[in-house]
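Here we describe the complex-level prediction in full. Unlike the single-chain runs in Section 2.1, the two entities below were treated as one system.
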Amino acid sequence: MSTEKSSPIGLHRVVSPKGVLPQAAEVVDPHAPLTDDEVRISVERLNLDAASFRQLYEAHDGDGDAVRQAVLEIVGRRGKMQNPVTGSGGMLIGTVDAVGPDSPLGLKPGQPVATLVSLTLTPLVITDELRQWDGQSEQVPCQGHAILFARSIAAVLPEDMPSDMSLAVMDVCGAPAMTARLVEQLTASTGTAPSVVVLGAAGKSGSLSIAAARAAGASRTVGVVRDNTEADALNSAGIADTTAVADATDAVAVSTIVHEKLGAPADLTVVCVDAPGCEHGAILATRDGGAVIFFSMATSFSQAALGAEGLAADVHMVIGNGYTPNHAEYALDLLRRERGIRELFTQRLLSESA
Amino acid sequence: MSTEKSSPIGLHRVVSPKGVLPQAAEVVDPHAPLTDDEVRISVERLNLDAASFRQLYEAHDGDGDAVRQAVLEIVGRRGKMQNPVTGSGGMLIGTVDAVGPDSPLGLKPGQPVATLVSLTLTPLVITDELRQWDGQSEQVPCQGHAILFARSIAAVLPEDMPSDMSLAVMDVCGAPAMTARLVEQLTASTGTAPSVVVLGAAGKSGSLSIAAARAAGASRTVGVVRDNTEADALNSAGIADTTAVADATDAVAVSTIVHEKLGAPADLTVVCVDAPGCEHGAILATRDGGAVIFFSMATSFSQAALGAEGLAADVHMVIGNGYTPNHAEYALDLLRRERGIRELFTQRLLSESA
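The structure predicted for the assembly as a whole is:
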C-alpha cells in the first residue's frame, strides 16, 4: 500500500485535463496503487444509468455485441464508465477488497456494498471483457475493480432484503432523507407541522418521500399521481393521507386539486415526477413562504426561477441533493417499517423484469 | 370598466392553448377590457432580454428594419413579446394609465413604473409600429399599452436616480433580498452569523448581494472576481471584507482560495456569475450543512444535483427566486446607502452605453 498523499475527492487520479474534478475529467487513472484513504471494490455488477444505456443501445441498433464493445471502449479509454454523449454513469455493486488504513468510510474487506456516488467519477477496470453480459439490459454482470475516495459514499447491502430491492431504494435515497429534514425545519421555524404534497407519489422516490414526510410529522400528506391505476396502488399502500389524480405538467390542474384537497396551498411540495414541465404546477400549489423541493433530473432551473418570478410567488425552491448523511439507512428503514412501500417496490421490480 | 371575474394570474387572457399559464401560452389577449383587479400601463420603452435580442439580431444579419418587423410580428401574433426561439422576454417601463378598483398593486394613474414580471407573460399592444427604434439595441422606444394582473409585480421608478440605474437595479433585485433573508435564517438557526462568499461579486447582482450579506449581519464576506481589474473595482467600492481572484468555473481554484481567505469553507455561497460550469466550485467552497444560492440563469440543475452527490457534499442548494416581497425597495435602498455600489453601477452603465 502506497503512503502517497491523496486527495479526498480524488484529484490525484485525474489524468486529463489536469486540475479538474474526477467527474469533469476526460480520463482518470484506475491502475495507480491504492492510497491510504482509498478503498478498492471487487466489482460484481454495473447498473448503467437508464439514459446512458438507451443512448448506447439506440446508437448500435440494439446489437448487443456492439453495445458491449462500446462500454469496454469507454471504460478502457476513460478509466471510468461515463457515457460521453449523455454524460451520465450509473452505480455498481461488489465486495470490499482492500481498505486503506486512513479511509473514513468504515468499510471492512468482504462486505457486500453498493456505491452511491456516480460511476461518472469512479475509477474502474474491467477484467472479464463483460463476457457474461448480452448488451441487452442496463444490468451488467462484470468482473474488475473500482476505487472509492475518502469522500465517496458506499452502503453495505443489507442481508434482510434482495439486492435488487436494496439497489432500487438506494438509487433514490436522497429524496426521503431530505424531505424529512425539510419537514422538521419547517416545523421548527414556524412552530406548526407543515402540509406536504408529493407529485409522483406512487413512484420510487415519491413513495419513499411521502412516507418520510408523514414519519417526520407532516400535518397532512397529499399524493398526486397521474392515473387511477397509480391512485389505487397508492391507496392500497396506505402511505398518503389523501390521493389525487392530476397531470403534473398541467399547472392549473395541479394547483386546483391541491387547493381542493387541503383547502389551501401546500406548505411543502415535493416534485418526484420524472418528466419536464412540472415546475409551475409545483410553485402554484405552494403557499407564499412555503417550499418546493425538486428531485426530478428533468427539472429546468430557468423554468423554476422565471416561473416563480412570473407568478410573484415567494416560494423557497430547493435543488434535491442526492446526498444527506445516513440517507441509505434512513430509506431502508422506511421500507422495513412500511409494508405498503415494500409492496409498491416489489410490484415495480416485477414489472421492470417482465 | 368590466365587472367580469378575472384570474389573479391572468388565466382569463389566455387564448391558446386553453388552460395554461400566460407564460406558457402561445397567444394571450391584450385587447379585452380591463377587469376590476387589473392595471393598464401606457408603455414608453421595452427592454428586451439580451439573449432574445441577440437571437433576433443574428437571425436577421443585423438588419434593423427586419429586426423591428420581427418584434412587431411576434407581438401582433402572440399578444406578448416572447421570443419563440429563446422563450425569453424582458421588461418594460411606462406610466400607469388605469387601475381597476380591486387591484392589490397599490398603483395610481400617472406614476412612472417598471414591470418586474417578464414580458413573456405580459399582454402587450404596440401602436406606433416602433418607428422610433432602429432595431440595433435591446432598448426599444415604444408606444402602446400593457396589462398587469393582480399577482403581477411593478415598481414605481424613484425620483432620486436616473431611470436606467433604477432599471439596472430592479433587473437583479431578487438576489440581494434573498441573500439577506438566507443570512438571517442561517443566523437564527445556528446562533452564529455566517461567512458569505459571492462568486461574481463585482457584477450587478453580485455587488448588491455582497452588500446585502454584510447589511444582514454576515460575519465575514469574500468577493470572488475574475481578474485584477474587477478586484480593483470591488476594493474601491469597499463593500466586501476580502477580495479574491479566481476563475469561477475552476472548482479546485475557487474552493482553494475560499479556504485560504476564510480558513474554512463558507457557510453560504452565492453564485452571481453569468456563465455555465460554476456549480461544483460553489459546492466545494461551502461547508457541510451550509447553503448555496444559484442566481445565474446559466446554472444547470443536474450539474448542481449530481455534483453535490458526487462530492458527498451535504449542502442546501437553493434556486434563486426573482421575487421576494419588497425586493425592489430593498435593492434601491442598498444603492442609496452604499456609495460604492452606486459607483460600480455607474461605471457599468457608462461602459454599456459606450
